Amino acid sequence: MMPHSRDALPPVRGTYAENAPLKDLVWFRAGGNAEILFRPADADDLATFLAAKNADTRISVIGVGSNLLVRDGGIPGVVVRLPGAFGKIVVEGKRIHAGAAALDAAVARQAAEAGIAGLEFLRGIPGTIGGALRMNAGCYGREIRDIFVEATAIDGRGNRHVLKAADMGFVYRKSQVPEDFIFVEAVFEGEAGDAAEIKARMNALVEQRESTQPVKSRTGGSTFKNPPGHKSWQLIDEAGCRGLVRGGAQVSEKHCNFLINTGDATAADIESLGEEVRARVKAKSGIDLEWEIKRVGVP
């Protein structure tokens, strides 16, 4: 990576760290470093940074890295990671105001405590609200757009935007918000419900997920999107890929749409295994699997 001194960056109230390791911040526990890791103090600090940075400064954003593969060469430029100050959750009637760094599971639990139904599916999504907004995250028949009211984002020039559903352009596992927008907060709405019943449904969802997915492994969640009319795991299984190994990476025996780091996998191991799976599925079924995991950085 080209050296990028923090001296060339605008002053902030948050923190900069040079050549910062990222592998311990992502679920795969693999990959390279951030050239500069920036943790803003709050939304105003983030906006000030984005407005004052050089136009050619490359910006990336990561959350808890539950659906992210950082390549071994790391991420050039500035990587923004929102700290706990962006994780506040506030209940207001049947609505939940959640910071972009709030865990999806924490939002689900808060909604349950408040007797707000319809957000239970978030308990099964490992990640933060910011990532869930970007990819229209979902599971068990529900997705972000089903509960979405509005979101606040800051663009690459430091301008704030309040986005309604029509602005998000939600489609399957994706929103169509400009890439330079960084989400800082969202508002969701559910329905009035009985807290005990909501918690019971949520617990059942968690038990189902833990019994069918390798959630306690070093993984990046669902690897490939489901093609129309098909299930990715089934296509992968039929192509003979269950348990397939490349270096320290393996296709999960438990759920073969999950890749896992068995202990010492490099990001290259994981990505090349995924590409081998895609090639085998293509040869077997003629279907091109599309990555759901976001792959970032340089090899």
Structure commentary:
This protein is an alpha+beta fold. It has three domains: 79 residues, Uridine Diphospho-n-acetylenolpyruvylglucosamine Reductase, domain 2, CATH 3.30.43.10; 111 residues, 2-Layer Sandwich (Uridine Diphospho-n-acetylenolpyruvylglucosamine Reductase, domain 3), CATH 3.30.465; 81 residues, Uridine Diphospho-n-acetylenolpyruvylglucosamine Reductase, domain 1 (Alpha-Beta Complex), CATH 3.90.78. Helices cover 25% and strands 27% of the residues. It is built from seven helices and 19 strands. The strands form six sheets. Strands 6-7-13-11-12 form a five-stranded antiparallel sheet. The chain has a four-stranded mixed sheet with strand order 1-2-5-3, with no helix packed on it. Strands 15-18-17-16 form a four-stranded antiparallel sheet. Helix 2 packs antiparallel against helix 5. The radius of gyration is 19 Å and the shape is globular.
